Amino acid sequence: MSEWTIHGSRTVYSSPWMELALVDVEPPGYPRYEHHLVRWAPVAATVVLNERDEVLMMWRHRFTTDTWNWEIPCGIVEDGEEVAAAAVREVEEETGWRVGAVEPLVYTQPVGGMSNAEHHVFLARGAEFVAPPVDTHEADRIEWIPLDRVQAMINRREIVAGVALTGLLQLLARRP
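The structure assignment produced for this chain is given below.
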């Protein structure tokens, strides 16, 4: 199969967080049509693991799906910011815990057919509490959850956010 031909694109809506475009595309052997494309800034997320094999998680409500669930710290990479630096920044802003070095855990494109979204998930080993979170609207509770409870929480739909699932399942898959 060959690559699709892009004949042009027009923005339908734009904000600092995202852009909706209609892209004039032509799949090989098929007629041209306008395809919706959602463009996002890259996202950086971090699975923070402490020395007791616990993961730093945030209990929060998502109005878009009307669900409560446990998530990992995550946010948009700002213009000119290094992805790893954004991951470190988001942990502290959202939880009040500071991490040092982060290492890449997994990279994903969660909706490749309709979006350019890129999720960069990092692993941080250890953290130090420095202050209450700056982003107080991000979570109702912040807790260290034992890693050996995570799979059961996923099974009960207590962890449903894609970036959290991806990072946590990757970490579980790498365990000896």
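Interim note for the steering committee: The chain has two domains: 5-40, 43-174. The longest strand covers residues 5-14.
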